[in-house]
Amino acid sequence: MIGFEEARETVLASAVRVSGETVALERALGRVLAEPVRARGALPPFSYSAMDGFALRAGALEGSAPWRVPLAGESRTGHVPEPLVPGHACRISTGARIPDGADAVLPVEIVERQDGAIAVRDAVRPGQHVRLAGEDLEVGAVALPAGKRLDPASLGLLASLDHVEVAVARRPRVVVLCTGDELRKAGATAEPGKIPDSISLPLSALAAQAGADVRRVDYVKDEQQPTEHAVRAALQEADLLLTVGGVSVGEHDWVRPALAAEGIVLDFYKVAIKPGKPITFGRRGPAGPSVLALPGNPASALITFALFGMPLLRAMQGDATPLPRTLPMTLTNAVRHKPGRLEFLRARVERTSPSTVTALDNQASGALTSLAWADTLVLFPAESAELAAGAGVAVLSFSDF
Fold first, then answer.
1. What is the pLDDT of residues 298-309, one digit of tens each?
2. Is the peptide bond prior to 36 cis by the omega test (within 30 degrees of 0)?
3. Same domain flag for 250 and 270
4. Neighbouring-strand partners of residue 348
5. How far is CA 347 from CA 28, 310, 329, 363, in A?
């Protein structure tokens, strides 16, 4: 049994980078850039006004305030204005191009209109309320680096640079294989001894959230030959095989022998965490598929996949930030546990200022209720027996996975 940090470092170090592909910008949300994206032109492409008001040349104001500046012309968005008439100001809209000869903008709110002119009572500095061409990005500058996971704002930036497609890492292929004689599909006719599968769907959703292309296969009985056949078939198509259950050493646990038969060498078996101690990780050669064998209890399987599988999938895509952030918060209630393993407590963030977090009551490995009601995990150090109310704790937010 190894520690959490060592296990996670082992998993990330094993990540085999997937190849790249080019996709339309409309399909790029959540994808990871395979190469840097550079600005094809300056951004902004021209100098424009940040305010509705009047464009003028600051140096044209001679003598002492106030100044009377005659008006001539207008600059509207979507049009190229005529050059500024020397000694004059022109009306200008927010986002409209600064006319040649102007270098400042006076907001309409501070300007007194007169017949055919404006009264300027305060000194004007060059560049006032002007967004300069190339102020954000010069031609050829890196707009987004390789390894950037594309969010909506990133798509907006790429569109502003006239990119309609982008080079990204292809989606890792994930196969989800659940074992167990007790499993049936949710909604299927209830039978004695059978329970609805509550793991494969959320597990697939988490993998897809991490950028994977996911396929779920039929449930595998707790028998040697069906397990070996299913593992063999899955490894032929998977970059990452996720198995659920059957990884222990009981009479009906056939996953580990099936993995060994297919040349999977285990990097570790059991991690000093709670829930999820039986988690197992291995791979077939330096460039072959990886296997993450998850515990059979629902909460254990989903939490361990979030902790290990999602960072692995992000690393396989070259994501520069594959790990979730650990944030500090204050615990509202006292909790105890038996020292020896790092525990991840299901908890809820309280909307206070500053934010506090409350550990939920039911922390059982099979409890999906508390996992569904939680929005964060509190890290309970392995060496501690108790965390008091008011204690500072580290948390992992579900929104960051």
1. 999 999 999 999
2. no
3. yes
4. 358
5. 33, 20, 12, 9
Query: How far is Cα 241 from Cα 29, in angstroms, rounded to an integer?
Result: 24
The gap between the terminal CA atoms of the chain, to the nearest Å, is 25
* Mean pLDDT score, 282-307: 95
The pLDDT tens digits for 43-52 are: 999 999 999 9
Residue 213 pairs in a beta bridge with 173
Residue 297 and residue 176: Cα distance in Å, rounded?
Answer: 15
* Residue 43 within any structural domain of the chain: no
Do 165 and 183 share a domain, yes or no?
no
Please list the residues that pair with 100 across neighbouring strands: none
- Residue 187 has phi, psi (to 5 degrees) of 95, -10
Question: 351 is in which domain, residue-wise?
Answer: 327-400
Q: List Cβ neighbours of 250 (8 Å cut-off, separation of 6 or more).
A: none
What kind and span of H or E run contains 49?
Answer: strand 48-49
Number of domains the chain is built from: 4
pLDDT in tens, 328-363: 999 999 999 999 999 999 999 998 888 899 999 999
- Considering the domain architecture, whether residues 198 and 101 belong to the same structural domain is answered as no
Cα radius of gyration rounded to whole Å, the chain: 30
Structure tokens at 138: 């010069």
Tokens 């580290």 map to which residue?
Answer: 394
Q: Tokens 């999977």 identify what position?
A: 264
> What pLDDT, on the 0 to 100 scale, is given for residue 22?
98
